[in-house]
Write a structure and sequence with these properties.
This protein is of the alpha/beta class. It has a single domain, classed as Alpha-Beta Barrel (TIM Barrel). The protein is globular and about 55 Å long. The protein has an eight-stranded parallel beta sheet, with helices on both faces. It contains 13 helices and eight strands. Helix 5 runs parallel beside helix 6. Helix 4 links the parallel strand 2 and strand 3. The model has no long low-confidence stretch (mean pLDDT 96). The structure holds zinc ion. Zinc ion binds next to strand 1.
Length: 311
Amino acid sequence: MIIDVHYHLVPALGRGTARHMAKYTVEAARRVGLDLDLEQCTQEALETFADPEGEHLLKRMDDAGIDVTVFCMVDNYAIPGSTLEAARVANERAAAVALRHPDRFVALAGVDPRRPEAVDLLRRCLDDFGMKGLKLHPDHGYDPVSPESFALYEIVQERKGVVLIHTGPILPPGRGATYAHPLLLEDLAVDFPDLPVIAAHMGQAWWRDWAGLASVQSTLYGDLAEWQILAKRSFPLFCKDLREIIDRVGIEKVLFGTDGPVLDPVVSSAEYVRIVKSLTERSPHGIKFMPEETAAILGENAVRIFGTFLP
Ligand SMILES: [Zn+2]
């Protein structure tokens, strides 16, 4: 079974958000030596990223051989005009998509802890809309271990849900990385011993800090979203880092994720699945991956975390 634990479902998309997402695509492309045009990427984002019924995503999963996708919503209270109503509607629409395909999708709510009504909104997302956990973006400028954030973890842990939390400097370049440092997750792991926490991107360039923490905190996991850029740019370095991560942290902590759909124009999900599968044969001299390890990364580890949500 192949599970993508980190995807962004976009029920509706305006030009401003499309442009922001396209900037990410263009920056990521630049890192693999591709020169993409921002205007063209914005237009393509408008045409292909909005996915109100999840049909694009299902097609993409079928092309890549992905059985289940865990998709998340993003809520940023700092954006002017980001109303409670808009956040509720976006979560409810995404949740409805997941409910229509319970064998293919698991939905995580996007709730910014800075919202005065954050606790009530998250309760609605989990209890009324049927979402299975929470995605946080502290890089939007908030502390992931503030009392407001802790109030949300409390709710997710009570319902045996999962938290996916952005870690690492984010593209396009901007502020906020300080709050996305993986070491901030220490108190979260200690104070919520029954809450699986997935550090998105494993902290990216700060993966060693994530690895240090994840090697001692049993509930802290990491995902490989955005690592396809490194895999494409320097496959030997991708292999070297991933081997070291597995050896230091344990194979059970590493989960496959794509961060789609923004990176699809650079590395498709199908290509990323192929890259991970090929680790057993294509790794450079001196680095070895076993088929059991790629199977664990691609899905078996995620089954242990998300399997209870699947029929
Ligand atoms: Zn993401």
